[in-house]
Amino acid sequence: MYMAKNNEVVSSNTTSCCTTSSSCSTILAGRVKSSPAPFLSKTYDLLELQERTRAVGSNDDHDNNNNGSIISWNEEGDGFIVWSPPEFSELLLPKYFKHNNFSSFIRQLNTYGFKKTSSKRWEFKHEKFQKGCKHLLVEITRKKCEPSVFPAFLKASFEENTTTTTQKHNRLQLMAEENKNLLKEKLELQTQIAQFKALEDKLLDCLAHYMGDNKFKGFCPKP
Prior knowledge:
The chain is mostly helical. It is built from 6 helices and 4 strands. Among the domains are: 38-54 and 68-139, Orthogonal Bundle (Arc Repressor Mutant, subunit A); 173-207. It has a 4-stranded antiparallel beta sheet with strand order 1-2-4-3.
């Protein structure tokens, strides 16, 4: 009887511990799920702030669709658009993400399953990332990416940046060459002017010498 009671006590305690453990796991799981990834929260908060700023600006400018926004929700609210990647990298990335690398930001989006949905602009979508639905962020999980996987839109961005850099370099070289030619022409003109000036002085001296007229010197003074 004593052993049976002890067994009952042990069994009861075990059940209680399992129940408690299960409850704790549920609570912990709930806590984890209630906190979305910082990257997602920051991106969402950034969009909301820009949306409020854009709403204020729209009172002064009704003809501009994005009112000079750097980043904003799309019209449907099921995605967002980076209107100006250079300004976004320079002004907003350092403030919210502690870096200024636009490609790194895109890589993070890809890690969480975002898709680039337009070939003409930097628009990204995720079924759980929607305007006014911040509670859905907890359902967005970080996916495992193979090291060899390189998103097509990120590759396009890299190639575009490379092309832009090459074009800028070529333009700088062309401008440097033009500047060099202009400087050369300027020096040649200055030399010619100096030669004409010397010739003028020489002619005036010759006239004064051969005419032997001191008044002429006063009439035609040397400059």
